[in-house]
Amino acid sequence: MAAPVSETMPIQSSDDIVRVRQEVRKRAAEQGLGIVDQTKFVTAASEIARNTLDYGGGGSVHLEVVTDGLRKGLRLIFEDQGPGIPNIELALTDGYTTGSGLGLGLSGSRRLCNEFAIESEPGKGTKVTIARWK
């Protein structure tokens, strides 16, 4: 049985991040992405899901199967109502972190995707959209 074209999943715990990773891998494979592209996209999704939980206080991800002519792909829209990102350009700089990590989460995720967009307003949350195409 085929997965629905779109689905929204909660991100409220580490277990939810595991479920997001599993669903992204499954759907990426269903769209025909090879193992390397699946791994890149799952890694990006995992990083952004972790940020949604750790920095945004939890949120959700909306998974969409997308087509553009003959191309097929998967788009993920992560949203939270957390404190937001005051300086997106700085947050996308390699090595920048407000936590204890390496500062490669957002910038690394951007490199692993075919599409990457981020919207954030301090006090109102963050929305990150990524996509990977076959």
Question: Would you kindly provide a written description of the structure presented here, covering whatever features stand out?
Answer:
- There is one protein chain.
- This protein has 134 residues and is an alpha+beta fold.
- It has a single domain (6-133), classed as 2-Layer Sandwich (Heat Shock Protein 90), CATH 3.30.565.
- Helices cover 37% and strands 31% of the residues.
- It has helices at residues 14-30, 35-54, 88-91, 105-112, and strands at residues 6-11, 59-68, 71-80, 115-121, 125-133.
- It has a five-stranded antiparallel sheet, covered by helices on one side.
- Helix 1 runs antiparallel to helix 2 (35-54) and helix 2 packs antiparallel against helix 4.
- It starts with 5 loop residues before the first strand and ends with a strand.
Write the layout of secondary structure elements.
Layout: E1 6-11, H1 14-30, H2 35-54, E2 59-68, E3 71-80, H3 88-91, H4 105-112, E4 115-121, E5 125-133
Antiparallel strand pairs: 1-2, 2-3, 3-5, 4-5
Helix pairs in contact: 1-2, 2-4
Question: Short description, anyone?
Answer:
With 134 residues, the chain is an alpha+beta fold.
